[in-house]
Amino acid sequence: MAEPEIKRDIETQHGQQIASRRGRLNRFTLAVALLASTTSILLGYDIGVMSGAALYIKEYFKLTSIQQEILIGSLNVCSLIGSLASGKTSDWIGRRYTIILAAITFLIGALLMGLAPSFGFLMAGRVVAGIGVGYSLMIAPVYTAEISPAATRGLLGSFPEVFITFGILLGYVFNYILSDLPENINWRIMLGVAAIPSTIIILGVLVMPESPRWLVMKGRRVEAKEVLVKTSEGGVEEAEYRLQLLLASSTSSDENFQGQGVWKDLFLRPTPAVQRILIAAIGINFFMQASGNDAVIYYTPEVFRSAGIHKRKQLVLVTVIMGIFKTLFVLLSALYLDRFGRRPLLLLGASGMVVSLTGLGLGSIYLHRSVEKPVWAIALCVVAVCADVSFFSIGLGPITWVYSSEIFPMRLRAQGTSIAVSVNRLVSGAVSMSFLSIAEKITFAGVFFVLAGITTLGVVFLSVFA
């Protein structure tokens, strides 16, 4: 019997009864899920801090727009390396040590960026940090999904996006605080301070348990049950139920369960169910980044500079306001994700982004054609940007990570998620590295209308596959 069918039988016979009795949040599970998801703060901080630091780096190194795009987008492109390698790596050394590897890699990259004497040196730091980001984006959702009971998996699985958003806000705040320092120092501190959370993560992960799924995969069933007892509010009974689910998934061939032959099952001989899962996971990750959220955040100062806001501190302040809205809405999504479900919030968030991006395009085209830059048009753009990132934080932001990590069967989860995250990173890099160049050809307004069109296609895709 196929793995999903085995799991479905067990859940139908016994799992729903346990889930109804044990829906409370286990404190230990909450703690380790929070700690694992903290790795995502590294990407968020970089997105937030680079939006402001780029203003000073561009002046310090006398960068062209293309060099600025390469600088910003290189981290996302290079994260592709980490996300592709993360599936095999996490199956080999375990989920916990993969988190440590991600933090160490980003730590080295942060130090290289903060101490960079040249643009080339700065780019080297971006490459190293990008690899670390790739590892962290894949492993945090996978670890959280594997250690969380089904009843609270939506809430806990949304933590990576919560921490990405918090990291973005943190980056904005540091930009604002450090903006008055000399311009040859402030951007170095902005980038180098990322070494601090990396160090905290490395030390914190040492006290985390290993993923019970990985322990079962390695034949360490006693240790797996011990972890399941700690992470189950229902104690031994719920732990035994969850262990049976893991063991049921291992009844497929040992070759597949050990991580061998998984690529064949994903791409060469996928069942119709696996094929649909793969399309859904890759599609949602594609539209998450093709909607342009990362680029909008990275280049918000450039957008509002063209809109008539020229003082750097005011530009940075706008990003802080945007970060506050984004953080509030991602917390709301995390709290209500399990209550309302994935699909309704995905469709609400994506539809709201279409309206927001259209409004941003209308405001931008008016400002582009206006000499006086009226306050109402600038206000419309600010509101539209805040609405865009808020709707993203309701739907595509947090739910993409939850969806990607829980949709795959257990034996395909690590590699399947790494493929989906790789698409995510590749599209994010492509959008980030072309945003300014395209805007120079068709204006910022044109870019926002294009993003609105792409997101509309995303709504259609989600209505069919989500």
UniProtKB/TrEMBL annotation:
Protein name: Major facilitator superfamily (MFS) profile domain-containing protein
GO CC annotations on file: membrane
Pfam families: Sugar_tr (PF00083)
Signal peptide range: none
An example Gene Ontology molecular-function term: carbohydrate transmembrane transporter activity
Localization in the cell: Membrane
InterPro entries hit by this protein: MFS_dom, MFS_sugar_transport-like, MFS_trans_sf, STP/PLT_plant, Sugar/inositol_transpt, Sugar_transporter_CS
Membrane topology: Multi-pass membrane protein
Residues in Major facilitator superfamily (MFS) profile domain copies: 32-466
Transmembrane residue ranges: 28-45, 65-85, 97-115, 121-143, 155-177, 189-208, 315-337, 343-363, 375-403, 442-465
Keyword Transmembrane helix attached: yes
Sequence similarity: Belongs to the major facilitator superfamily. Sugar transporter (TC 2.A.1.1) family.
Chief place where the protein resides: membrane
Key words of the record: Membrane, Sugar transport, Symport, Transmembrane, Transmembrane helix, Transport
Coiled-coil annotated residue ranges, if any: none
Alphabetized SUPFAM superfamilies for the sequence: MFS general substrate transporter
Organism superkingdom: Eukaryota
